[in-house]
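Q: Here's a chain of 195 amino acids. Please give me its 3D structure as tokens.
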Amino acid sequence: MTGSGELQSDRPNEEAQLVARIAARDEHAFRTAIEAHASLMHRIAYRMMGDAHEAEDIAQEAMLRLWDHAPRLDKRAGVKIAPWLKRVTINLAIDRLRIAKRNSDSEVPDRADETPLADTQIEEKQEGAAARALIAALPDRQRAAIVLTYYEELPNIEAAAALDMNIKAFESLLHRARAALKKAFAKQESNGGAA
């Protein structure tokens, strides 16, 4: 793609056609959607859950929901697959986090990243783990705001849509998440933790 305005204006039409084909139970169209979006769903779920197996389950569930909901989505004007899947993925992750908290007498333990990147230095790994632990301690929706904004690098308007919020409410949520992270980071530093 050249990124021209003409091609971008055709994109919603292409997505609508893809949704229509999935609604008509076209398995090839569904595979096309999986190839285009599964890795993004897995990344979002992994950053929310901190567990590769949970992330895989959530990504698969999100894609199955696309298959199941395609007939309804096909009736919506201007439906876009990626924002819809992001919202579904975030909601599935939040649901699993809530169930885990409910089924546990104590706080859900922070999970270390089990698959460190080979090209990352040890110091960066330690700082990254500390940051992930602080993010994992945030309330679910604040964690989702941080993941979508900083890890997925979504513009606020898209992140708000993924969380089914208006832009002002999302910006307020993101502000609270940043303040909570800053406070937790300062507390960790004062306790002699890694900065």
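Q: Can you summarize the key feature?
A: The chain is about 75% helix and 0% strand.
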